Amino acid sequence: MSVDLASLTPRWPAPPGVRAAFTLRGGGVSAAPFDSLNLGTHVGDAAAAVVENRQRVRRSLCLPAEPSWLEQVHGAEVIEVRGNACDSAPIADGIVSREAGVVAAVQVADCLPVLFAARDASVVAAAHAGWRGLAAGVLEATVTRTGVAPAQLLAWLGPAIGRAHFEVGAEVREAFVARAARAAAAFIPNSRGRWQCDLHTLARQRLEAVGVASVFGGEWCTFADPGRFFSYRRDGQCGRMAALIWRE
Q1: pTM, whole model, 2 decimals?
Q2: CATH number belonging to the domain at 7-161+218-247, selected among 3.60.140.10, 3.80.10.10, 3.40.1000.10, 3.40.50.970
């Protein structure tokens, strides 16, 4: 059966042979509140629906293999995957691959997905970066695990909850400002005595600090676009989207 699902294709100068995509919420078989292209097995959706949705993504994007899914825990552990996907999902929030035909993937529903590619296409990577992962250093750990000079890496920031909708407490702001004073620019005080947090700005700052200067994307808010994106902060129980990258 031919399947044609809507997805975002990163606009970045990726080298020949590197492909990437970000799935949207439409075109699957899951019932509400996971409607319809939920790719997460951990959110309460019917297992058969998730299997079908993942098969549809694989066919639609012409993936060379089943994605290497992770059990994400909002930390900074990064793994390197070789060969076929594991039978069970490794616990990690970043994934690196140097082999053609291996699909690195992270799942999100407000957290920030970040994709990486070396300019010479020798390595690709994906990171799951919510505020906890960002504060813990998941982006820095992913850059290090690639083994590539940061100046030779390209990064793409995918859809995440935008500052207008991401309210956090003072402890979140302090977690970033204590490490780098300029992180204060990513937080705006609101009328409730709390802060509106900009994940995209924090990610750009972290990447720049370790020498990754070529950063693209970052223009989508998951909360503000219910037609295309799942959002945990907006809906509570919901599905998961995926950012995927691979070498042909």
Answers
A1: 0.96
A2: 3.60.140.10
